[in-house]
Design brief:
Largest sheet: 8 strands, parallel, barrel
Strand order of the largest sheet: 1-3-4-5-7-9-11-12
Number of strands: 14
Bound molecules: 6-O-phosphono-beta-D-galactopyranose
Shape: globular
Strand content: 5-15%
Radius of gyration: 21 Å
Oligomer: single chain
Order of helices and strands: EHEHEHHEHHEHEHEEHHHEEHEHEEEH
Structural class: alpha/beta
Number of helices: 14
Helix content: 25-40%
Amino acid sequence: MTSNCFPEKFLWGGATAAYQCEGAWDEDGKGFAVTDLLTAGTRRNPRLFTPTVRDDLYYPAKLGIDHYHRYKEDIALFAEMGFKVYRMSISWARIFPNGDDKEPNKKGLDFYRSVFEECRKHNIEPLVSIMHHDTPLALALKQDGWLSRKTIDAYVRYAKTLFTEYKGLVHYWITFNEINMTMNYFGDIYGAGILSNGTTKIDINNVSPDSLTEEKQNKRFKALHHQFLASAMAVKAGHEIDVSNKIGCMIASDAHYPYSCNPINILAAQNSMRKLWFCGDVQVRGEYSYFTNAYLKERGVTLELEDGDSEILKSGTVDFYSLSYYTSGTDCLDQQVDTDSGNFNLGAANPYLKKSEWGWAFDPDGLRWVLNEIYGRYGIPIFIAENGLGAVDVVSEDGTVHDDYRIQYLKAHAKAMKQAIDDGVNLFGYTWWGPIDLVSASTGEMAKRYGFIYVDLDNEGHGSLKRSKKDSFYYYKKLIETNGACLFEE
Ligand code: BGP
């Protein structure tokens, strides 16, 4: 008989990223990241990237949710929910302000040491993303970010510094957040720091043909190749520095279905899924997939491997596969239908699914499906590094947020995870995206809230920053306390 509980040591927790929550963007010696210079936007009003700070614009990374100064309070709240793991990222430019400085910034190293010690005090395991969207601006300005092989060296030195400095304090690492983001046009800013592509507007719902020229696509795939090399070298170094390190990839893994059983839609959906497999195959298997040439040819891309690259990729395959999952998309080539939304999905709208206020489809079954697909392909342990619901929250007269919609989202996805585990998938942890409200990556607003903890802050940076517990806070606490069993109580 299968039990209602999750596996005994299942890692429940939450995930954040430095530039979306820390603030203190130029404090204690920190340099700028490319993503620091993204302005606030909304769903309809895209964020802008400016290579220098403009006084007439608001940059949410400047303040974040002030986690830099309030991390103790925030971690105590995570501990109250019973977190076993806290996934967070280190800001590269806090450690090496220019990305490749001779010496690391001591104050940056000390800050993260204190964060990890705080986690340990509460028996929370830190899981660290070495890079989450934030290529140092100096490297972007100097060498077009990841287009240059010099950025590989800088990253590997940065990663080795972290492995050495935090040996014994951190055991779980992710080399790059959503590495497949680099394939997209907004990956110029979030993924690779390729300024020469001229991307200055993040309009995730309207991809202009001008952003998809062969020249630009070639640069993205070259940068992605460099990130694969950097990831493999970091994995190898991480294992050498501490054999007990567990190092994973992280791939945006939203499900993709054919809109109908018309074979052309089936082939289109298969092709969409290759956005995952393209990266997973390199990072898990250590080599490019059999479909690489055809896939790249469609985009007018030629991949140039240098001598020794293939060996490097083979020498640093990951220990686990981590993913973000928010929604699903469908592919439809045989008729005109509405399009869908989501940071990675621009497919046809699925008529069977409800959508969030930001147009992201609600599809827990897609999570079960994609977990099975991934596990079937790779057979290595899986970790859900991000999943969550961005919604507008209203503070009621009683001063709290009654976010039943978030609880329903959580329940449905947790049930899907349990079904996948019962299917036989080796899933060892789950971190809800944004356990505390933070700045949205795609739109740069606070109004799109994910948290179980409410932060009093608006889109323009006004508010007391006070933290308070939403109804979902208590539900997640119960879910963790019962190790999932409460899902089946009603
Ligand atoms: C992922 C990113 C996160 C996070 C999340 C939610 O793609 O890794 O950084 O922000 O999406 O997206 P958004 O903030 O745009 O709602």
